[in-house]
Amino acid sequence: MDIDLSEEQEFFRDTTRKFLHAESPLSRVRELIDDTTGFDRETWAQGADLGWFSFLVPDEFGGGTLSGAPVTDLAIVAGELGRSMFPGPVLPSNLVASAIARSGSPGLRAEHLPSIVAGDTIATWAFAEANDRWDAEGIELAAVPEGEGFRLSGTKTVVQDAHVATLFLVSARTPRGLTQFLVPATSDGVDVEPLETLDVARRFSHIRFDNVAVDATAVVGQVDEAVDDIEYLGNLAVVLQCAESVGAAERTFEFTLEYAQDRKAFGRPIGGFQAIKHRFAEMLGWLESAKAATAGALEAVQRGVDATEITSIAKWHVGTHTTRVVRDCLQVHGGIGYTWEHDLHLYLRRVESNRAVLGSPEQHLDRLAAVLGI
Fold first, then answer.
1. CA 298 from centroid of its chain's CA atoms
2. Residue intervals in the chain for CATH 2.40.110.10
3. Cα separation of 87 and 84, whole Å?
4. How confident is the prediction along the chain (374 residues), in pLDDT tens digits per residue?
5. In this structure, which CATH number among 1.20.140.10, 2.60.40.10, 1.10.3720.10, 3.40.50.670 belongs to the domain 227-372?
């Protein structure tokens, strides 16, 4: 991304890139496509040792940042995950950690944050529903008060890695507003149904909550008052996803440029033809502008200001233009790019999936128009 990294951040980025290249190459990602879990738990544990889950967690619970800018530090990881197509739920676990650290009770923080940081707890955010809404107003799953607790009924969908998560952060509608709950995956009445999705290297699921009992201690934040927390979490999720998509598009651009310099037609590299040069120049412009949009959104989320406008701008721009970059790279490769054996389709599947998850570019334009009163 177009951000100035400190020497320590650059070292961390390079270390993360080398680690993923060694421990999670694309050949390993391919092997895991048909694996029940979908990611390598040993690599997950080593990532935890590198600090992947610590940035949004206070020091007292095992967390910590490189630079004092934890969102930026985590975005470095997100970009490298995109470059390597790492399939595990690193970003969802961080989102849940952020929600607990931001609004959880002292008991919830002490119970869950150390185990998330250590990689022992896999957590995911159960937010979206079948109405294809990616905002707080679209939440329909009901939390009905019962005694000292609640009963949850409804369905969440497009929940990343719910099939292996041990903890769900669930957004629900309570009688006078919205509330977030931490729900163990083993709770009675919870049913996880895997989905078949475009991104074959990543897992998503439906989760059905059938009168699931949760007590008052499971509430993250205040009952009926989770709108601001949900909006913050949505903005954080969007900007980290943008960083991941930029990383994926950047890596695709790099190996396509190498291919254009090696592939010859009519006795010369195809990258020497003017039409291909113009296409690469256009792609580079899209890629650099996507980096800039992501950096701007990162800064806003990091500063804790109202980031709704700029994150929607970033999601529209990144979602639109990273897919254009990868699709144009596919055209440069020609027929070989359409084969299962070539890695390009894995990157295309990732950026196209990211384009839709957390709201399409068109939905974010509508969101932006609503915020601006247009």
1. 14
2. 123-220
3. 9
4. 556 788 888 999 999 999 999 999 999 999 999 999 999 999 999 999 999 999 999 999 999 998 889 999 999 999 999 999 999 999 999 999 999 999 999 999 999 999 999 999 999 999 999 998 898 999 999 999 999 999 999 999 999 999 999 999 999 999 999 999 999 999 999 999 999 999 999 999 999 999 999 999 999 999 999 999 999 999 999 999 999 999 999 999 999 999 999 888 888 888 888 899 999 999 999 999 999 999 999 999 999 878 999 999 999 999 999 999 999 999 999 999 999 999 999 999 999 999 999 999 999 999 888 888 88
5. 1.20.140.10
Burial class (CB in 10 A: 0-12, 13-18, 19+), 125: buried
Cβ neighbours for 67, distance < 8 A, ≥ 6 positions apart: 6, 8, 9, 73
- In the block, residue with structure tokens 């949009």: 293
Q: Which CATH class is domain 123-220?
A: mainly beta
Cβ 73 vs Cβ 239: under 8 Å: no
CATH class of 7-117: mainly alpha
